[in-house]
Amino acid sequence: MTILTFLDYTGVAVFAATGALAASRKQLDIIGFLFFACATGVGGGTLRDLVLGLTPVFWVREHLYLLICVVVAVLIFFTAHRLESRYRWLLWLDAAGLAVFSVMGAVIGLSATGSPVVAVVTGVLTATFGGVLRDLVSGEPTVLMRREIYVTAALLGALVFVLAVRIGLSGPLGSVPAFLAAFILRGGAIRYGWTLPSYRHSPGRPPDEIS
Fold first, then answer.
1. What is the pTM of this model?
2. Contact of 52 with 113, CB cutoff 8 Å
3. pLDDT tens across 91-141, in order?
4. Would you say 137 and 20 are in contact if contact means Cβ atoms under 8 Å apart?
């Protein structure tokens, strides 16, 4: 097993755990846990493969990804109540999953197309869509609607990987700084509330001042 394959399995497991934790917060049954874990774990990668035309998608070609989601869902079902703060665990696991998937999405996008631009886009899609899907289904405010940095962290991870490859670092070597960049930025947003400047609405001029 290569390092990148291990990271891919790890990312699926971590995102599946965030989905199962979301199910625990909603006090769902085991089927709910399985659904949330699978949807979150493979959702981003499924969208990536469809965009790239890689069909059948990765979890159809390799069933181990779904089995990982199932095992994680069952483990969380029996242990979630032992976690003192499930929401904080969810946030940090999600940050780790985002960092891993931003790299893996970029790796697969670059391998499939050779385009750095496409690699960055697939890195962002892979890293964020599973979390967006999880939040939408669970009725939580989606990561896109929160002010904390989220998508930007995935963007940074994918960009760092692409730049690392451009300067001659191999996939495994380039993945380390990319993972760290994404995780540190997202971690800072969780810990310190880092945000990007938001749009400030400027009221229009009164009608009588418009000539």
1. 0.87
2. yes
3. 888 899 899 999 999 999 999 999 999 999 999 999 999 989 999 998 888
4. no
φ, ψ of residue 148 in degrees (nearest 5): -60, 145
Residue 201 φ then ψ, to 5°: -70, 130
The structure tokens 């199910």 sit at: 23
Sequence-distant contacts of 168-175: CB under 8 A, at least 24 apart: 171/4, 171/107, 172/2, 172/3, 172/4, 175/3, 175/4, 175/7, 175/103, 175/107
Residues with Cβ within 8 Å of 156's Cβ and at least 6 positions away in sequence, in order, are 102, 181, 182, 185
Q: How far is CA 181 from the centre of its chain?
A: 14
The residue type of 83 is L
Closest to 154 (Cα-Cα) out of 208, 210, 109, 209: 109
> How confident is residue 43, by pLDDT bands cut at 50, 70 and 90?
very high
